[in-house]
Write a structure and sequence with these properties.
With 334 residues, this protein is mostly beta strands. The strands form eight sheets. A four-stranded antiparallel beta sheet has the order 3-4-5-6, with no helix packed on it. It is globular, with a radius of gyration of 21 Å.
Length: 334
């Protein structure tokens, strides 16, 4: 920030593109006023990516990183028709055309927004906490007593939760596209969650990992640690295998679809922290990592190669990208 200034500040943002083999294709540095940190990297259309920051965003060319345009708002998510959905704070959700003009707005939105394949928008009201669904034109479709939004699957089934504040118990709920609660089941606190290729929902509170089937039945429950500790957001490959990194023993784990441990591998090169793991189209995993060097701890972008049970058994490459923790990653096929 500018010295002595708290109301006006500006940061340099570094955005880098890497090839599938980890070679840096380009790096773009740009200065934005009143933006504290990067929040997202979104593919808007062929050849253009959006780099969102705290209060605005830049459009960059995917080919060379050149800056195409700036906008003084940052989309939280982009709908299938190209509509930008922006949570403006204070409960105001705006639907904007790509040129920034307003299509409609909703003034009771929660912080999290999700968009279904049919263009419906889901959020939780900021007044009563209830899940609400809006049609693509902004008109209300339904409201549900579910008070936490997790994700929307490809069939437009919405997964959320209810929390009992008296005993701190959580219920995972599946809600249909027209607002009917299909089922609910008691689960752990959904600190992290993801969807498997067969529709299984995986949830973890960092100590337990639970697998919930499409009909709401508990498939299995596995204790990951004896106490709460840091783990990454689990990810699932096309074969239903589950991957995560544990901060307690600095190991990568791979589980099969029944929760059985397939592989446990100590992190190489002094890696002590892993975040935002992503699969690419070739089955490799990319992730931000913190690793030790002779002089200091650095942050890098790591590529983990394939093995008998999938990725994460061998480090193929690591690229130093920052001295502070990086904020956003996306894998875009050109």
């Amino acid at each position: 920030p500018n010295p002595g200034s708290w109301t006006e500040y500006q940061y340099d943002f570094n955005v880098s593109s890497f090839t599938s083999t980890g070679q840096k294709a380009w790096n773009t540095t740009y200065l934005r006023q009143n933006s504290r940190y990067a929040t997202s990297i979104i593919e808007e259309r062929n050849g253009v990516v959006i780099v969102g920051t705290y209060r605005n965003y830049a459009q960059l060319s995917i080919d060379d990183g050149s800056i195409i345009d700036y906008a003084e708002y940052c989309p939280d998510i982009i709908g299938p028709d190209g509509t930008h959905f922006v949570n403006s704070g204070g409960g105001l959700l705006k639907a904007l055309k790509p040129d920034g003009t307003t299509k409609w707005q909703f003034d009771k939105s929660g912080a999290k927004i999700a968009v279904g394949c049919d263009g419906a928008i889901y959020t939780c009201r900021n007044d009563n906490g209830y899940l609400i669904c809006l049609n693509a034109d902004g008109t209300p479709r339904f409201e549900s007593s579910v008070n936490g939004l997790l994700l929307v699957d490809p069939n437009n089934t919405v997964y959320g939760y209810k929390r009992n504040s008296n005993n701190n118990e959580y219920m995972l709920c599946a809600v249909s596209h027209n607002g009917m609660i299909l089922w609910s089941t008691k689960t752990c606190c959904p600190k992290y969650y993801c969807l498997g290729p067969d529709g299984t929902v995986y949830l973890t509170d960092s100590m337990w990992l639970e697998a919930i089937s499409l009909n709401g039945k508990l498939k299995w429950k596995k204790q990951l640690h004896s106490s709460n500790t840091y783990i990454t957001q689990p990810i699932v490959d096309a074969g239903g295998r589950i991957y995560y990194f544990s901060g307690s023993d600095k190991c990568f784990y791979i589980l099969d679809g029944d929760g059985n441990e397939l592989c446990k591998t100590p992190a190489p090169l002094g890696i002590s922290w892993v975040d935002k793991m992503r699969f690419d189209k070739d089955g490799h995993i990319w992730a931000f990592v913190k690793y030790s060097t002779e002089s200091a701890n650095d942050y890098g972008l790591a590529i983990f190669g394939e093995a008998d049970y999938g990725p994460i058994t061998g480090l193929e490459d690591i690229v130093e990208i920052a001295k502070r923790d990086p904020k956003a990653i996306n894998i875009i096929s050109k």
